[in-house]
Amino acid sequence: MEVSRHNRAELASLEERVAELRKETQKIRDAYSLARERVTKLRVSTAERRKNLAAAKALPVASHSQSVQYFQQGMEDMSDMLTHTRKVLVEELLNVFDIAEVGGRPSLGGTRGMKGEMTIGGLVLPVPGDMRRYSPDHINGAITHTLHFLGLLTFYLGVKLPFEVTWSGDAMGVGIPYITAGKGSELGGWARWSIKQPLHIVPSPSTPSTTGPTPTSSSSSQTPSFLTALTMLLYNTLYLCHTQSLNIPLSQSGEILRNLMNLCCALEVGQKSHQTGFGIALEHPTPPSFALDFTQLLQITSSGPIQRKPLVTPNLPLRPSDADDEVDGWDIIEVDF
């Protein structure tokens, strides 16, 4: 009896062991099947990669060069188109603001000056040494026109200027314009002039001149000065001309409108920009190639003696509105500040 029980117990144990072995065997078979499927997929993927690699090796190198040349030509064509568009906009801007030379290209109207002076919107913008010959309202109007022109011109050309213009009315063209240094390098010494300077003349009987004394350093002695602001405008103009490969000598630095007109008529205008250069993008202001020092320009602008004298212009063909101003063949305009 005991032997029979022992045999039955051992048989049950062996059956359980066999069942466990069958389960383990099935697990191994399932894992083997998954491994075979994975190996098959890897073989297919490897074969596909080898096929692609062989096709890539068989592709001629010349086709890559042709693709590169095609895209380069496309960029050059786009650059030429953009340059042409900028030139058209600049020429149209020159006509809209009616920048002209007295005695040269006829102006559409406004105040006449001496032969050789430049006008914008019919208003003469003289060099700094001749500004006393005009009323403050006249100078303010001419400068406002110039600021609007310069703002649109730099927008079309995509050029960032060293000095930035803001308006007291918190909107472009509204209120009194102020000018101050923007962010840039220390080259040229312009970035230190961070105090806002008014590009506006306030008429006052006690004011001996429209420009006034101006400090020649950027220390704490910086005080708001129209002449300092005007020098900043001159510096912007000279830098803008430099960006378009038009170099202006210091002897002509005060002729803002003439320099801007020459810039608009230059052959290379529109080719270089801070925003879209296509390989010839401009450096941020001011690069080492622009070696003009702001303090030097300020000294040159304020060094010339200013004589207070009436504006005398030769006898030119008059418009009907100017007939009453003619005296013995000359137009004499006396301005009191």
From TrEMBL:
Signal peptide: none annotated. Residues 201-223 are annotated as: Disordered. This is Autophagy-related protein 14. One of its GO terms (cellular component) is lytic vacuole. Keywords: Coiled coil. Residues 4-38 form a coiled coil. InterPro entries: UV_resistance/autophagy_Atg14. It comes from the Eukaryota. Belongs to the ATG14 family. Residues 203-223 have a biased composition (Low complexity). It comes from Clathrus columnatus. One of its GO terms (biological process) is SNARE complex assembly. It holds the Pfam family ATG14. GO terms for molecular function: SNARE binding.
